[in-house]
Amino acid sequence: MVLSLEPLLIGGITVYTSAQGGVFFDNSQIFKFSSPELKHGQVLLKYLSDHIESEYDVSLRINCPQCKSIVMMRRYFSPVKAVEIDECPGCAGIWLDSGELAKIHENHLTPKERKLLAHEMATNHGFITIKSPTSRFTPTNKNAHEATVENLVRLALLGL
Fold it and tell me: Taking the C-alpha atoms of 101, 38, 108 and 74 in order, what is their torsion angle to the nearest 10 degrees?
């Protein structure tokens, strides 16, 4: 699907919008608009809300407006997995369909919420940080090593 886009300058940043209310961001520009507290995001959201949504299939793959021959990939914007966005594997540009910026604002996490989510993900999904010893082959406590060897010898003798 080929998009017809118009440049829009917001706070010195140029984004590209479609008549259907979609928007294209160059690499990492989206982070200047993704928080509901940021003025750029509020202005863009107001501008996009004035567009009339037309009927089009958001599941269709689109070509990157910048890298014309590259089809954009779908991925979730955040770990909350509330908004699926299109990202160009070539230039890292982001396409948001109509209404997706509003969803990003609705699901925006504060730093405290992000920290809680990271903790919950680590707890529930088994992501843990393990501090490895200086050497895996030499024990840090020699007495513990000797006790372990003695226990292994006893177990071996019991098996005979």
Answer: 40
For residue 66, give the nearest of 88, 85, 84 by alpha carbon. Answer: 88
Q: If phi over 0 gives left and psi between -120 and 50 gives alpha, with beta otherwise, what is residue 21?
A: left
User: Which percentage of the chain shows pLDDT scores above 70?
Assistant: 69
Residue bearing tokens 């993704």: 34
Task: Give this prediction's pTM.
Answer: 0.66
Strand bridging mode 23-25 / 73-76: unpaired
Report the distance separating Cα 57 and Cα 74, nearest Å: 14
| Nearest CA among 76, 26, 73, 19 for reference residue 47 | 19
* pLDDT, tens only, 63-77: 999 998 999 999 988
Task: Over range 114-143, report the average pLDDT.
Answer: 59
Pair type for strands 94-96 and 23-25: antiparallel
